[in-house]
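Dear colleague,

Following up on yesterday's call, I've attached the two folding results inline so they're easy to grep. Please treat them as preliminary; we haven't cross-checked anything against experimental data yet. The first protein's sequence and structure tokens come first.
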Amino acid sequence: MFTIISCQKEDIDATSTPAYLEINNITLDDGTPLPSVTDAWVYVNDQLQGVYELPAKFPVLEEGVQTLRVRAGIKANGIASNRIYYPFYNSYFEDVNFTPNETRTISPTTNYLENAEFEEEDFEGNSEKLAITPISDVNYEKLTENSNSFAFASLSSDTLFTFEIASEELENLPQAGAPVFLELDYKCNTRFLVGVYINYPQSVVQKDLLWISPKEDWNKIYVNLTSTISEGIGATSFKVFVGMKRDPELDENKLSFDNFKVVY
């Protein structure tokens, strides 16, 4: 289990008997599971207690009623060593009464910050906000599975080499280090690329950001676009793209994706 412990040295007493806190998962306020939230960032009275991979049970060297804060942690860019708390989810607060040798189980919930902005496509309506780019040899099709609509793209011919879609032009993305992320649900049998087109008045710059590995089952990834957007000084707009290349070692390259969401 991945665990980072953070505590003040003077608080540690070898003779202390700790209480225990148990967190199994973090859900949305309506109870919807968030399997993509992998960690709990736990604060006691605004002091970082530690970062714990879920599900977790850990000691707390506090007694009595304490103010607990929990932030939802993710693997940025899908990388296990790049764990952060997601800046667009609310913190969960609860006053917890800690008793030595006793375990308290809590069920934190979260949701998006009220001031979070979204540019998203969930393929449920008729107004589609993603379009193939000029280099794409094929378009995607909309499929439905278990009452959920999603996009599907395939490359199976030796004459079709590239699939690429991009968002509409995004003109109001914040810069100066303000967080910007792409959330994406996907499954695929081949790796695919996420990147950004930076549109300057006289040119367009393509920034390839992250190659994403195959996943047999649906997975969610949070791609950190922050530095790329902030570095685009003078740009008039941005387009976030997803691309797939033909791999001749496979009979068919397949990519399904859903809930394409730029959050800022």
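Below is the second protein, in the same order (sequence, then structure):
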Amino acid sequence: MDFNVWLTFTIATFLICFSPGPNMLHMMKSGAHYGMKRTLYSMLGCFLAVSILIGTSIAGIGALLLTSPPAV
């Protein structure tokens, strides 16, 4: 996969994931109920989950492009 395509995909995915949505609502709720220190663990968990999803998406798109020559 071309580096520019990968970089564009990664940036777009991070922007979509960090826009207000379920993860942000979860962080606000955790922060209000449990405080900042315990919310950091929730933030780390959400970040790791998003990172795993991005990694598997990139691997899947790369495999798809490799098996489909007309898509390149």
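For the second protein, one point worth flagging: The CA atoms of residues 31 and 37 lie 8 Å apart.

Best wishes,
A.L.
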